[in-house]
Design goal:
Order of helices and strands: EEEHEHHEHHEEEHEEHEHEHEHEEE
Largest sheet: 8 strands, mixed
Strand content: 25-35%
Helix content: 25-40%
Low-confidence stretches: 116-121, 191-198, 311-315
Number of strands: 16
Mean pLDDT: 85
Strand order of the largest sheet: 6-5-4-3-2-1-14-15
Amino acid sequence: MATFDSPGSTTGEITLLGTGGGYGESAVVHLGNNRWLIIDSCINPITRRALPLEYLQKIGVSMSDVCLIICTHWHDDHILGIAAVLEACVNSKFAFARANDLRKFLQFVQLDYSKLKTNQSNSSTVEFGRCMDILLARKVQPIWAGQDRVLYREQLGEGISSEVISLSPSDATIATFDAEVSSLITEFGPPNKKIVVRSPNAKSVVTFIKLGNHRALLGADLEVGSAADEGWNNILNACATIDQRASLFKIPHHGSENGYHPEVWKRLLVEDPVAKLTPWNLHDKLPQAAMLEVFKKHSKQVYMTSPIVGAGKPKKRRKNVEKLLRELGGRLHEVKFTEGTIRSRIAMDDKAAQWEVVAFPAAIQV
């Protein structure tokens, strides 16, 4: 039976973490020689701690061994707890999609941060503002992620290295983002107006990870896009740093149809790759059954961090229990959180090695 233990120095690991409630995603990556990467963050609603920190602590990894944190995009289900992650990982660099005009971007963050007094501010903006405060106190500059940008590289031994490369957002997407930020500042309005970011998924940071002889493609929430120079279209058309097909794929955007491009499976992935995703269990459920069938045609190794929860009615409870709770000023509600962990490990120095995948409850193989 598989246990929560730490990998060897030449064992690569890519572990996808998700909440059974369907709201949160993070990935933890062992780059070799006890060097770790954290991509995004989500919160354990019971302990209120960031899941990537809990996972690393569970397998006995020191937070000082985390060398890089990537924030793929500005959505709550990918960013909650990331400030706590950055604060705990004192030796880590911090990467996110750069903005052409940083002054405008930081002004935008500060404006929204000021809305806390009205309780109207986006929690993701608060998280990002705290990250900026931490970096400022450490006198450390963030790393800008973009097309074909090397975020990390280390030689592990003779002929063996690890590398983390961002494939997106494209230059065209970044230019659009700069225009959006300028517009948001101009149209910011009164303190009780909640900000709207038009297309954060289009700005997602897709990472291409080299682990010795093996490759992984982590899709964040990137959508296909309507233009040739944006989204997955741009990665297929213009990225020059993909040196071989990936054998592990983090399916983008919870398996949504707008994140699916058949050419990604044909040109960027090996046949029958390990494919994993986090479902979206709020409101419109993702992935839809039809998309799961599509993924299963591409691979026999499709995993989810938890099942798709139905929208059924709450369970009936004994009236005397509910009456007592009301008298005591409390209420009874269902706990929807069940942590799902999909761990994948591979020998970085063995070209013939295959991923060893373990799905810890409540993760499942489709």
